[in-house]
Amino acid sequence: MTQALKENPPLVSAYLPRAAKIVEKRKLTDGETWFRFTFPDAQGVKYLAGQFMEVSLFGIGGAPISICSAPGQRDDLEMCVRAVGDVTRAMHALNVGDTLALRGPFGNGFDMDTVAGKDLLFVAGGLGLAPCRSFILDALTRRGQFGRVTILYGGRTPKDLLFRDDLAVWAERKDAEFFVTVDRPDADWKGRTGVITTLFRQVAKSDPARTAAFIIGPPIMFKFAVLEALGRGLGKTNIHCSLERRMKCGLGMCGHCQIRNVYVCQEGPIFSYADVIRLREGI
Ligand SMILES: Cc1cc2nc3c(=O)[nH]c(=O)nc-3n(C[C@H](O)[C@H](O)[C@H](O)COP(=O)(O)OP(=O)(O)OC[C@H]3O[C@@H](n4cnc5c(N)ncnc54)[C@H](O)[C@@H]3O)c2cc1C
Ligand code: FES
C-alpha cells in the first residue's frame, strides 16, 4: 500500500454497499462497455492499481469487476465490463443517471511506488487491458518516476480492441513505446498481426535487474508471455501478474479461489511470478 494510503485509510468500509451513480457510459466493442461512477455520499474512493469492486444489482446479483481508472484518492472510478451473464448484461442495460451498489476496493492491488526508477513493461491481452490500464495510466501520469515505459497489447480482432482513444494517445507519446497486434486482421487493419508474444521482438533489451513486467491476460497468453520475460533475463520477483480468473465471490467467502492456504482474492489478484510458482495449481 502506498504511504499516502497507509497514512489516510479510506473513509468508508470496503464491506459497506455504497450507491454509485453512472455519470458516463460508452460502448467500447460489441461485448464491452466502459462506465464512470461517482458516489452520491461524496466520500470518494481510494484504491491501488489491480484492485477490484464488487458490483451489486438489486434482484439480479453481484460480480467482481476490476477498476480500470488511474489509482489514488478520487471522486470517481471507471470499469470496463464484458457482458457474459446476468449481472454484466444487466449492467450494460443501465444508463447514465442510474444507480447501482458498489463494495470495495478489494484485493491486494499493487503499489507502483515499489517499482519507482525501474523500466516498466506492460503486457495486456484482451480484457486484461482493463486492469492493466490502471497501472499504465498511473505510470504515464507520473512518468518522471519511472525508466522506460513499454506497453504491449494484443486482441483477437481489430473490433475487439478496447480503449481505442487511449491506444491512439499512447501511440503518439514520445516518452513511451506502444505496440499492438491482433490475432485475426480484417480488411481495414494496417497494424501488426500475430499473437502478443511476437511483439517482444519490437522491445529493445533493458537491464533485467531494473525492469518490472506486468502481465495481465488470458491464461494461455500469460504462460507464453512469462516465458518471453524470463528469456529476457527478468527475475521471477520482477514479473507481476493477475490471477483474477480463479475467483468467484472475490471477498474471501466462497473458497472458490483457495489454493492450499492462500485465498487468491485476498492475497491477490496481483502476484509475482515467484509466488505464482508457489501456487502452481493457479496456472
Ligand atoms: C477479481 C476479478 C476482476 C474482474 N474484473 C473484470 C472486469 O474488469 N471486467 C469484466 O468484464 N469482468 C471482470 N471479471 C469477471 C466478472 O466478474 C465475471 O464475468 C462476472 O462475475 C460474470 O457475472 P455474470 O452474472 O454476468 O455472469 P454469470 O452468469 O455468473 O456467468 C456467465 C458466464 O461467465 C463465466 N464467468 C463467470 N465468472 C467468471 C470469471 N471470473 N472469469 C471468467 N468467466 C467467468 C461463467 O462461467 C459463465 O460461463 C473479474 C473477475 C474477478 C474475479
Ligand atoms: S473468490 Fe470467494 S473466497 Fe476468494
Give a concise summary:
The chain is α/β, with parallel strands linked by helices.
Give the topology, please.
Blueprint: H1 3-7, E1 18-27, E2 32-38, E3 45-47, E4 52-57, E5 61-66, E6 72-74, E7 76-82, H2 86-93, E8 99-106, E9 119-125, H3 129-141, E10 149-155, H4 164-172, E11 177-182, E12 192-193, E13 211-216, H5 219-231, E14 239-242, E15 258-259, E16 262-263, H6 264-267, E17 270-272, H7 273-278
Parallel strand pairs: 9-10, 9-13, 10-11, 11-12, 13-14
Antiparallel strand pairs: 1-2, 1-8, 2-7, 3-6, 4-5, 4-8, 14-17, 15-16
Bound molecules: flavin-adenine dinucleotide (FAD) and FE2/S2 (inorganic) cluster (FES).
Residues 247-257, 263, 265 line the site of FE2/S2 (inorganic) cluster.
